[in-house]
Specification:
- By secondary structure, the chain is mainly beta.
- The chain folds into 5 domains: about 25-35 and about 90-170 and about 350-630, 3 Solenoid (Pectate Lyase C-like); about 235-350; about 665-740, Sandwich (Immunoglobulin-like); about 750-880, Jelly Rolls; about 1010-1200.
- The chain contains 9 helices and 85 strands.
- The strands form 11 sheets. It has a 20-stranded mixed sheet that branches. An 11-stranded parallel sheet has the order 55-56-59-62-65-68-71-74-77-80-83, covered by helices on one side.
- A hairpin with a 4-residue loop joins strand 40 and strand 41 (about 670-675).
């Protein structure tokens, strides 16, 4: 094989089994055990992952949450009751490191968190159990089935869970020869021991929910049989659903059988998809003996549901099928297996998710344990070294079992002498195992014991671990899209059979001793399929040939990729180690055809399928007459997975200093305002957590905070903690108490300035715009020009209001002398407060006045700088007369629908916090003098579960049809939409024939298609201060964040001005767009003119490339000003250029894609994009050229700033 023994043929080298040089993974394990500082790892998150490489599987979403950082202190649940400390374990649950049985107490602690905290928990609100240092005795399997929970010890080697299985936990049924667990003999009622496969373990991450079919069996089962039924809600024979039609490889559509209860399927939930075995599928694996065929689902995978079509009984998956999904075992023309037609099935899963296990060790103690047949065991770990048999089959329990689990991590965990597998999966997705050390097993013999085992595992990451004295590291049973990187093994990398595919092994070290062989066994020897040991010795790679692996599953599947690994094999006892697959720049794709690596090719010797890997490990399968390994590609980057494999900087472990004790700066009937002195940190303070009693009230990046929603005449106490970028948290500050004011029977005045239009006399620089003082974010601010008096900041409330309170949150640049003023026309001002003795901090002012406009006028600075406000808050209520229409408060979907249908000019519709589900559309018009306002806080959320009904030929509000749009304005000009959120809808906000609409401070995310669409000549609109992400979840090619106008092909529907969609002069200002926007962040369509794209932030991670979406902005319009935007890109995603022009022809004709101007934009193309601005055609724009100014900057570009001229 190309490079099999090294670039120059290679020479054998002495690689001592115990003393050889270690990789980073081994160093980490040693350091963790000894208490030394751990070595730094490369960044394993999405920020450091390569974009998918053409021709290779996409591994960019492997691991916890698809590449998210593993959680730290900032992801802790804010409720102290959701964190069980070591002291509380002892006092409340009787869990101590004193030799007493801690099993019941530990399970009770998990159960308490599951019932009391899981309902309010999440990936950023994790509960925890902290174990004490020392040895903790456990005698039964522990169910870690509380979602979003961390089990944490005092450190690897410091906290040890010692497993001594009791009589109800050890296996009480063995095979007739006594050599292995007999799962089929372990029965009760309808249940069999195989239902618990892969078997019991010390820690089990799996639901215990029982299928209704087996509740009576479970109730009657003795203690040693109850777990047969736990989790049965996920068994495909109990809860699976057949199909009405099959689906092909590459499809995302699942067509369910008629009569399916669609209420069981939810978008975002996990779905198991199992394809029935067929005779033709076996024949593809070169397995031709029908007596070996079995009715089961060898091809399977867990997906997430992207969309549910309740009416059509269809599901859309989040990624494409990697195998054909037949209707049943005969629908591909195969004969039935064993005379039975066996169906493919899907099962909606109840996964356990968000569980972490970290900083502890596990061992299973065998010495002194009772034998099943009498007597006791007298053994030590040395008895198991290089012994590939089962010493104690009844104690073949595992260390950690992950079954029907998702987004689970194992970090800095050590295992020492487990009963069988150290870590094993069985239907798990997005698992991450890193910085851990696994050493030894009491059982490594027949039946398949003693692995580091990845079975039925998908999209998972195994990084920088050390494995010693185990039988294999395996992927098997349909495992796919996993990444194994930077690990150190003394066992083989074993593709164990069962159509495992598309996995990546890179930059691992595997030095396999000569003794690693099934024949090295003292008792209970054999292979996984029940056969006897053979005479071979395991090499660093093992591949499942069809005729061999059919004994337990089937052949290994296509495109398992080995790259950059340091592999070696000791070929004689005590001898040297021989390099293996030694060209570390070459990609070895096993199970791949020579012409197309994604196509399956069984390994072949001289044109005939190999019956077994053993004895054929050194054939060159990349060259004729052999086949099955594609070795045609090389890569010099050093990693197919990561951008950089260089270690990151040493970790920051120093917490910030304790903040100053908070002080109350003002109270109302329902709020308390606080301020405190700042903390310091060697790397910088990133924020503060404010606690009301023991509960996290909120976070802020400033040294001021207002706690709202409180009860009148009530005392509250507060403390503050500081955080840094590494997640280190300071100790709590001193405590302050404050009492809210009396309610007095009058409702507290409302905050009426949040998200309103705001202007200022000046702005210091980009990033300090006036809008940042009314955005509700305590970490953003307005700053004026420095050194100049006077300066002002003005907010437009939209109509006259009675003003009762103004709150100023000053940055260090405060006003010593200033006035608060009101006005009805923005020209003539009335003072309602003035001072010449301002001292900064927070000024919470009681005022009396009326006006549509409120401003602060600073006349004397308190510092040499300018004026700077974190927040400018105005409280009041609409004036009873002369202030436009009334305020309509809504709190239900029905009330909102009614308010939208009956809205009047000048009216304000005010959303209470909560979720509004339904179809929300208005055809009511405001006026220039009296616009209509729809406003609400960010936690007022609009959701449309549609579409439904029969759609008209062109979108128009029609009885009986729900468009599925989150909010739809049709023929509704002069509206203001502020503050609220739209999500989980077909489209976000759609404006049809609705000019002069302002959208300010909205959040739009998780929508099927685009987020905001200005359509049917919705001209003169403004979108500002919005946050938009996760678009195109169903139709990636239509997942724009902002869509201005319509494609010329759609003007027949949307061209309502001379046959054209003239959504002209739209301004898109100061928005945060991305990540996970599937199409362009802004798509400027042909025929639209003279818009402004300014001050936006684009995060291109997740651009799909669908429908040619591969840039932040696609400018097909005419005369747009695109300036002062900041764009970045990092994988995953498809990215060609930052900004592009295109010139579609239209009727009537326009100079589409011409006359646009770029200036002051900052572009980071992530090493992927070619140009910051790519001009498609200069000749088509000769009369009105596009202009790219030199003030634009670009970094990490493959080509440069632009492909055309640069204008000074």
């Amino acid at each position: 094989m190309t490079g099999l023994t090294g670039p120059a043929g290679g020479t054998a080298a002495a690689v001592p089994h115990d003393d050889r040089a270690t990789t980073a993974a081994a160093t980490l394990a040693t350091a963790a055990t000894s208490g030394a500082a751990t070595a730094a790892l490369p960044d394993l998150t999405s920020a450091n992952r390569r974009a998918p490489v053409a021709g290779l599987p996409d591994w960019s979403r492997a691991g916890y949450r698809g590449g998210a950082p593993l959680p730290g202190p900032t992801e802790a649940h804010p409720d102290a009751a959701c964190h069980i400390t070591a002291q509380e374990l002892a006092s409340r649950y009787g869990v101590r490191a004193d030799g007493g049985d801690a099993t019941a107490g530990l399970q009770a602690a998990v159960d308490a968190l599951r019932t009391g905290c899981t309902p309010s928990a999440g990936y950023t609100r994790l509960s925890s159990i902290t174990l004490p240092a020392g040895r903790i005795l456990v005698t039964r399997q522990l169910a870690l089935d509380a979602d979003y929970m961390v089990l944490r010890g005092a450190g690897m080697g410091q906290t040890t869970l010692a497993f001594r299985p009791d009589a109800d936990t050890r296996y009480d049924t063995l095979t007739p020869d006594g050599g292995d667990w007999d799962e089929d003999g372990m029965t009760h009622g309808a249940g069999k021991g195989g239902w618990t496969w892969p078997g019991r373990g010390l820690l089990r991450v799996q639901t215990r929910e029982v299928s209704p079919k087996y509740t009576s069996d479970h109730a009657s089962a003795p203690a040693g049989r109850k777990d047969l039924f736990e989790g049965s809600v996920n068994q495909h024979w109990a809860s699976g659903v057949p199909l009405r039609e099959g689906s092909a490889l590459g499809s995302t559509q699942i067509r369910l059988a008629a009569g399916t209860d669609m209420s069981r399927f939810k978008a975002g939930a996990h779905l198991w998809v199992g394809a029935a075995n067929t005779a033709k599928f076996y024949q593809q694996q070169t397995i031709t003996d029908p007596s070996t065929y079995v009715n089961l689902h060898m091809r399977q995978q867990i997906f997430q549901i992207a969309a549910v079509d309740t009416t059509g009984k269809n599901l859309t998956l989040d990624k494409a099928l990697e195998y054909d999904l037949p209707l049943n075992s005969t629908s591909d023309g195969s004969a039935p297996i064993d005379g039975t037609v066996y169906p493919s099935r899907v099962t909606p899963l109840k996964v356990v998710q968000g569980v972490g296990i970290e900083d502890l060790s596990i061992t299973q103690e065998l010495d002194g344990m009772p034998r099943l047949g009498g007597g006791t065991y007298d053994v030590e770990p040395a008895d198991a070294k290089a012994n590939f048999g089962n010493i104690a089959p009844e104690y073949a329990q595992h260390g950690i079992v992950l079954k029907w689990a998702a987004n689970v991590w194992i970090r800095r965990v050590g295992t020492r002498m487990t009963g069988s597998h150290a870590v094993v999966t069985e239907s798990a997705k997005n698992i991450q195992v890193q910085e851990s050390s696994f050493d030894g097993s009491w059982n490594k013999g027949k039946g398949g014991n003693g692995y580091f085992r990845g079975s039925r595992v998908w999209d998972s990451l195994y990084a920088y671990n050390t494995s010693r004295n185990l039988r294999h590291f395996t992927f098997q049973w349909s495992a796919s899209d996993n990444v194994v990187v930077g690990n150190d093994f003394d066992s083989d990398l074993n593709l164990h059979g069962g159509w495992e595919r598309r996995n990546l092994f890179e930059n691992n070290r595997a030095a396999v001793p000569f003794e690693n062989s099934s024949k090295n066994c003292r008792a209970n020897c054999g292979e996984e399929g029940g056969g006897t040991p053979d005479d071979s010795t395991w090499w660093p790679i093992w591949w499942g040939a069809g005729r061999k692996a059919v004994k337990w599953s089937g052949a290994t599947g296509p495109q398992n990729v080995f790259y950059g690994n340091d592999l070696s094999k000791q070929t004689a006892a005590g001898g040297a180690y021989q390099p293996y697959y030694a060209d570390r720049r070459r990609l070895y794709q096993l199970g791949s055809a020579a012409a197309d690596a994604s196509a399956y090719q069984h390994l072949a010797e001289n044109g005939a399928p190999v019956p077994d890997w053993a004895g054929r490990e050194n054939l060159d399968y990349s060259r004729a007459p052999h086949a099955g390994v594609n070795a045609t590609r090389t890569d010099t980057s050093g990693s197919l997975f990561l951008k950089s494999t260089a270690p990151g900087p040493d970790g920051d472990t120093e917490a910030p200093s304790v903040p100053g004790a908070p002080r109350s700066t003002g109270t109302t009937a329902d709020s308390v305002s606080l301020a405190w002195d700042a903390s310091t940190d060697d790397q910088g303070v990133t924020g503060y957590d404010v606690y009301r009693g023991g509960t996290l009230a909120g976070t802020t990046t400033s040294t001021a905070y207002t706690d709202t929603g409180l009860t009148a005449s009530t005392a509250y106490s507060y403390t503050v903690k500081a955080r840094d970028a590494a997640g280190n948290t300071s100790a709590a500050s001193g405590t302050v108490s404050a009492t809210t004011r009396s309610g007095g029977g009058t409702p507290a005045p409302a905050l009426v300035s949040r998200g309103r239009p705001v202007t200022a006399s000046s702005v210091e620089t980009a990033g300090f715009e006036a809008s940042r003082a009314v955005d509700g974010d305590g970490g953003t601010r307005w700053a004026s020009a420095e050194g100049v008096d006077p300066q002002w900041l003005r907010v437009d409330l939209g109509s006259a209001h009675d003003i009762s309170r103004v709150r100023l949150g000053w940055e260090a640049a405060y006003g010593k002398a200033y006035r608060i003023q009101t006005s009805n026309d923005g020209t003539n001002w009335t003072d309602v407060h003035s001072t010449a003795t301002g001292d900064g901090g927070v000024d919470d002012l009681t005022v009396t006045g009326t006006g549509r406009y409120v401003r602060i006028l600073g006349t004397a600075r308190g510092t040499a700088y300018g004026y700077s406000l974190w927040e400018f808050e105005v409280y009041g209520s609409p004036a009873p007369a002369g202030g436009g229409g009334p305020v309509v408060d809504v709190s239900t979907a029905g009330q909102l629908q009614s308010a939208l249908a009956n809205a009047q000019p000048g009216q304000t519709i005010r959303l209470a916090a909560g979720e509004y589900r339904g179809s929300f559309v208005t055809q009511r018009a405001g006026t220039a003098a009296a616009p209509i306002t729809l406003t609400g806080p960010p936690n007022a959320v609009l959701v449309n579960d549609g579409p439904s009904g029969t759609a008209p030929s062109c979108p128009v509000p029609t009885a009986g049809w729900d468009s599925g749009y989150g909010l739809w304005l049709y023929g509704a000009p002069y509206w203001r939409l502020t503050g609220f959120t739209v999500k989980e809808s077909k489209k976000g906000v759609v404006l049809d024939d609705s000019p002069h609409v302002t959208l300010d401070g909205l959040s739009v995310h998780h929508v099927d298609e685009e987020a905001v669409h200005f359509r049917r000549s919705s001209a003169d609109g403004v979108l500002r201060n919005a946050t938009i992400s996760h678009t195109g979840l169903v139709q990636a090619g239509y997942g724009e964040a902002v869509y201005i106008g319509s494609a010329g092909s759609n003007w027949a529907c949307h061209g309502n001005q001379g046959g054209v969609d003239r959504s002209d002069r739209v301004q898109v200002l100061d928005n945060r767009i991305g990540p996970s926007v599937a199409a362009e962040h802004i798509d400027i369509k042909e025929g639209t003119h003279d818009g402004v794209i300014r001050g936006n932030t684009f995060d291109g991670t997740g651009i799909s490339g669908a429908n040619s979406a591969d840039s932040w902005v696609d400018a097909k319009g005419v005369g747009y000003l695109i300036e002062d935007n900041t764009g970045t890109f990092s994988s995953p995603g498809t990215f060609a250029n930052g900004y592009e022009t295109h010139n579609p022809a239209t009727t009537p004709s326009f100079p589409n894609g011409c006359g646009n101007v770029w200036r002051g934009n900052r572009s980071d193309l992530g090493g992927v994009g070619a140009y910051a601005v790519r001009i498609t055609s200069t000749s088509k724009c000769a009369a009105d050229p596009n202009v790219v100014h030199a003030s634009n900057t670009v970094t990490n570009a493959r080509s440069g700033l632009t492909n055309g001229p640069v204008t000074p």
